[in-house]
Amino acid sequence: MSTQQDLNYRQLITLRDGVRVLLRLLTQEDRQALVELYRPVALEDLRYMRHDVTDRRVVEAWVDELDYDRVLALVALVGDRVVGNCTLHLGSGPTRHVGEVRIYLSKEYRRRGLGTRMLQTLVDMGKRRHVHYVLAQVVVDQTNEIKAFQQMGFERKCTLENFFMLPDGDLRDVVQLILRLRAVHDEF
Question: pTM for the complete prediction?
Fold first, then answer.
């Protein structure tokens, strides 16, 4: 269930280099700005994405089908421009205690601390929704991304062989990283 605190969330942050960025949940009004975020996506980035974000209908559907009880979608804005999109996909049924994160940042906003701040915001929102584990699935080639998740406390749990197929048909391994949000207490 969406909390009012999450729905009203707005935070103005300052990156290490002094740039001010507004973090808030994605809204219907962000439709065109979100399309613009993905329009210039580099082919190297697109190779590792689950969806063809160059098709504006794919991105528009994310906005049209907004449901904060299933996906918390956070955007980062500099002025009116969306420069980042980070999502927490909430599980259901037997996986209702698990959330999966995905993130995309404009090239010029990478390695500036923005992604970490966005992910931490979604982790905090996940805690309020009783998420116990946050999952990140990263193609093994993306070593910088894997290191960034590990620096946030995510643990590398397993590698799924040949689990991701690139557009050209090549297969890549996927690393599953988990962030535990709640301690496990085993007792007899």
Answer: 0.92
Selected from 3.40.630.30, 3.20.20.70, 3.40.50.300, 3.30.420.10, the CATH number assigned to the domain covering 4-180 reads: 3.40.630.30
d(CA 152, CA 85): 18
The span from the CA of 34 to the CA of 26, in Å, is: 9
> What mean pLDDT is reported for the chain?
94
Please say whether the dihedral angle defined by the alpha carbons of residues 18, 84, 97 and 185, taken in this order, is positive or negative.
negative
Nearest of 112, 54, 121, 43 to residue 83 by alpha carbon:
112
* pLDDT tens digits along 137-180: 999 999 999 999 999 999 999 999 999 999 999 999 999 999 99
Can you tell me the distance from the alpha carbon of 134 to that of 127, in angstroms, rounded to the nearest whole number? 10
Length of the chain: 188
Question: Residue 95 corresponds to which tokens in the numbers above?
Answer: 């996986």
